[in-house]
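B., you asked whether I could sanity-check this one before it goes into the benchmark set. Here's the sequence:
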Amino acid sequence: MTDRAGTFDGVHRRNLSKVLGLVHLEGPLSRARLTVSTGLNRSTVASLVAELVSLGLAVEQAPDPTNRVGRPSPVVAADSNVLAIAVNPEVDAITIAAVGIDGRIPVRERIEVERLPTPEETAALVASVRDRWSAGPLREGRFVGVGLAVPGLVRATDGLVRWAPHLQWTDVPLRTLVEDATGLPAAVANDASLGAIAEHLFGAGRGIDDLVYLNGGASGIGGGLIVHGMPVGGAGGYAGEFGQNRPGIAADGDRRAADGVLEDEVSRSRLLAVAGLEHADEPTLAAALSSAGTRPVDDELARQRRILATALSNAVNVLNPSLVVLGGFLATIAERDLGALERAVAAQALPAAAEDLAIRVAELGEDRLMIGAAEIAFAALLADPLAAA
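And here's what the prediction gave me:
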């Protein structure tokens, strides 16, 4: 579709996108609220809503009976049957979720693996799970795309996985593999970059225009950047690889990996080891560390927090964000003593850069990567509901 910006068709498509985007981001809204937010007149909004309903993208609900001021206005919501498949392949498990365009996650599965999954196996698994869901709990659902959050370098132009070292994937055409296996359009991006988008739109960073997000997962540490309200990917889409930076370690006794990078020192596998676990999802690891109450656990969390603080202070000096958001096992480290982490970052950062800084844990928890992956799967539909519906 060629968007002829000055034509009625072009304006109409943008208005449909505007209304669908609002109920996607904000949740159910009255027609009156949509009229105010879009700046369109009431009859135009009513017509756009009716068209989105006919396309199966929105539903109208009865107005809130407690709102007795003025004429009741019908409530418009994104249709929960419109779904994306979100996928996060990791070294120990592949997590797959169905995410509704209304933000809900009706089904989620973590499929543990005994060896590193290949790209072909990942694509086949996504297709198999989709077929099983379509025949079972999501038989009324309508899948519109697949979003994949990959722990590695993903080329922005075509979704080629250039390098996912922990998965041992190099130059993998993952988007094509998944599209061939599922028959659905697919999009691929770095997992931490998607976590940053999710937290910016729906979580701890909502309403914050300048933030740094760091994600801690089984494959190490990645990062995402939001600057002036926009995701920053860099020239090729590879920005935010904080885990590959050389950490500053003040105390020799804190070093565990000679000449190691940040993710060698601040490490999920080291936390699993002191907790006495071989495998665990995020809530299980966090609970095990919290309940352990042993000196080795406390010492390892404190050691990793000290090194993480130095890495964060460097990011604060370079980027001057107003917010740092930590997800995955980094959130677990922070939550153990958030005040100590904040003080350590402030002590090492430039005072002016850190004076208005806040540090928060990811509000979306273990759903953050699924929601971020769904966003790139919904992108085409949200941009042009007529073309993608």
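One thing to flag: The mean pLDDT is 94. Otherwise nothing jumped out at me.
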